[in-house]
TrEMBL record:
PANTHER family: FERREDOXIN-FOLD ANTICODON-BINDING DOMAIN-CONTAINING PROTEIN 1, PHENYLALANYL-TRNA SYNTHETASE. It holds the Pfam family FDX-ACB. This is Ferredoxin-fold anticodon-binding domain-containing protein 1. Residues 491-584 form the FDX-ACB domain. GO terms for biological process: rRNA base methylation. InterPro entries: aa-tRNA-synth_II/BPL/LPL (IPR045864), BMT5-like (IPR019446), Fdx_antiC-bd (IPR005121), Fdx_antiC-bd_sf (IPR036690). It comes from the Eukaryota. GO terms for molecular function: rRNA (uridine-N3-)-methyltransferase activity. SMART domains: FDX-ACB.
């Protein structure tokens, strides 16, 4: 460099300002270059990395992978790694045009190996640094094209650890019981999104909804119990049917007199205690695979109960109280849990708010229409706040009358939010079928709303899993009093595809819902799609084989190909044990 006058001037300029300039730095071994006290960099820049000469994509991927892994050892907790790449090299949708994944440097997948996620990407500009030149074409002092080049900004991901289900203890009367968190719901019980200190968008949207309805109706907010144990008697709950129960998460309660510290051999942080507000459990019956009810074995020593699949299970308790206020909106809000297929807008855990309105039978049509009109106006107002002016319609919400002629589904025209959405999204329901033994002269309307789906639409959050992230950067997007489109801290996470085929026993049947639930549990919610590919019947043995395609992708963490391969291997073992299939 001493022969280059520009380099000499740059060195002089930097050193006069106290800058430490190092030479011969191996970007894949940064810990060898810097002492321990110097390994807390706020920013690391690598402009246009390349192995030199005619190195192919495989060698340059390897360079990036080792560089990112090396950065993880010297980067501050909230530090950034900036990598500039030429047009198309990164392989993300930010590249215009985007290269095929196998022909790119797969920068987000390589960064994941170092526990890093892509948090920002913007055009690289030489003009931003006066005098900057891009040289090094084929390891020579020649310039190369930087038109369309992008600067990729990476940050640390939360560690992708194997989460162990927590143990919950509940006190019923004077007796303690314990149960493990269902594997498919790890990290989703007792998050407190709706509680007083929370600033989560789900609480924000719920409070806005309630406040606006409060301008038209008197309100009475009811306390929602811990989401366990709906009442046993199905006859008083017209909403409670076999389909509803078969989608519930069933758990076993164990009598437990131990100290918190001794449970599962862990500390008290592994255990969460709750006082249940009723003194006696009414244990529901467990539906079998054929829909027939099976009586629960045992009493308090060990019994099967289920997590609440909907707030509608509490309806009868609310309307049967003697002091129920006719004309007032009674409000229940809380988390609910249902087994479901893996689809973009279906979720095993979400927050529901339930509005219960009772009125004299002679006023039924007028009261119902008034409630629907107010609700439609509130939802339309909320949903249009983040839409571009050109996308706004006079109404986004539609109440679709059901076949019984009295109930409605609350639908939203989602194509205004995303071109990928071709169908209307159901965010709630309106039911008018319940009657009260005590208040025989009254009619009742129940409006159920999925707050998670509503929050996704209002803030343009594309992935429901983001609502459950433990990353603190998520909540920083939400400014009190303002509704602005959500900007994710993890952009273009890599996808990994695996196929699986297996023989089934047609006599026992194949439970596809349980297949999806096992995939959700084993992958820690990283499977975003399960696609049925084919059915094959062996011509000689007549055995039937099914083939599915699983797509893995996270929304907030670094996920590597090796981690996915391990999950897929575990998934093969789990379906063999739980679903009695034979993987091929």
């Amino acid at each position: 460099l001493t022969r280059d006058p520009v380099a000499r001037e740059n060195l002089r300029y930097l050193r006069e300002r106290g800058i430490d300039v190092r030479f011969g730095v191996d970007c894949t071994q940064l810990t060898d270059v810097f002492e321990l006290h110097d390994r807390e960099f706020n920013q690391i820049y690598f402009n246009f990395p390349h192995c030199g000469r005619k190195a192919g994509v495989a060698k340059n991927r390897e360079l990036l992978a080792k560089f990112f892994q090396s950065c993880a050892d010297v980067l501050a907790e909230e530090g950034e790694v900036h990598v500039a790449l030429c047009r198309g090299q990164g392989g993300t949708p930010a590249d215009k045009p985007q290269r095929e994944w196998h022909n790119s440097w797969q920068v987000v997948a390589m960064a994941a190996l170092g526990g890093l996620i892509l948090s920002d990407v913007y055009p690289f500009s030489c003009k931003a640094v006066p005098g900057y030149k891009c040289t090094g074409y084929r390891s020579q002092d020649k310039s190369f094209h930087v038109e369309g080049a992008l600067n990729h900004v990476f940050t640390r991901s939360l560690p992708f650890e194997v989460s162990q289900p927590r143990i919950f203890r509940i006190k019923v009367g004077n007796q303690w019981f314990s149960f493990p968190e269902p594997e498919a719901l790890v990290g989703k019980l007792n998050r407190g999104f709706l509680e007083a200190p929370s600033c989560h968008p789900i609480k924000t949207i719920n409070e806005k909804l309630i406040a606006e309805l409060g301008k038209a109706f008197p309100l009475k907010r009811l306390e929602c119990s811990f989401p366990l144990l709906p009442q046993e008697d199905a006859s008083v709950l017209p909403f409670w049917n076999c389909d509803f129960l078969s989608a519930a998460f069933w758990i076993s309660l164990h009598e437990d007199n131990s100290n918190s510290e001794s449970l599962t051999g862990g500390t008290s942080q592994d255990v969460e205690d709750f006082l249940v507000s009723f003194s006696e459990l009414s244990l529901p019956k467990n539906p079998g695979r054929d829909g027939k009810e099976e009586a629960c074995e045992g009493t308090y020593g060990q019994a099967k109960v289920c997590l609440r699949p909907s707030l509608l299970v509490h309806v009868q308790d609310v309307i049967e109280v003697p002091d129920f206020l006719s004309g007032s909106l009674h409000i229940l809000s809380g988390p609910v849990f249902q087994k479901c297929h893996i689809l973009p807008f279906t979720m095993p855990a979400f927050h529901e708010t339930l509005f219960i309105l009772g009125f004299n039978q002679n006023l039924k049509d007028g009261c119902l229409q008034s409630l629907l009109d107010h609700l439609k106006g509130i939802l339309d107002s909320l949903l249009t706040q983040t839409l571009l002016e050109s996308s706004k319609l006079s109404s986004l919400v539609e109440f679709v009358l059901q076949s019984n002629g009295k109930d409605y589904m609350i639908c939203v025209k989602t194509h205004n939010f995303s071109p990928d959405c071709t169908e209307d999204l159901i965010i709630g329901s309106v039911t008018t079928s319940a009657t009260s033994v005590i208040h025989k002269d009254q009619c009742f309307v129940f409006v159920s709303m999925n707050l998670d789906l509503l929050a996704m639409l209002v803030w343009c959050i594309s992935d429901w899993r983001m609502l459950w992230t433990f990353d603190n950067r998520f909540l920083k997007n939400f400014v009190p009093g303002k509704i602005e489109p959500f900007k994710s801290h993890s952009l273009y996470p890599p996808c990994y595809v695996h196929d699986i085929s297996f023989w089934i026993d047609e006599k026992k049947g194949f439970d596809e819902l349980e297949f999806h639930t096992v995939a959700r549990a084993v992958s820690q919610d990283t499977v975003i799609s399960i696609q049925f590919l084919s059915r094959f019947q062996h011509p000689k043995t007549q055995q039937v084989s099914l083939c599915y395609r699983l797509t893995y992708q996270t929304c907030d963490k670094a996920l590597t190909q090796q981690q996915v391969a391990s999950m897929q291997s575990q998934f093969r073992k789990e379906i063999q044990q739980r679903l009695y299939v034979i993987p091929r």
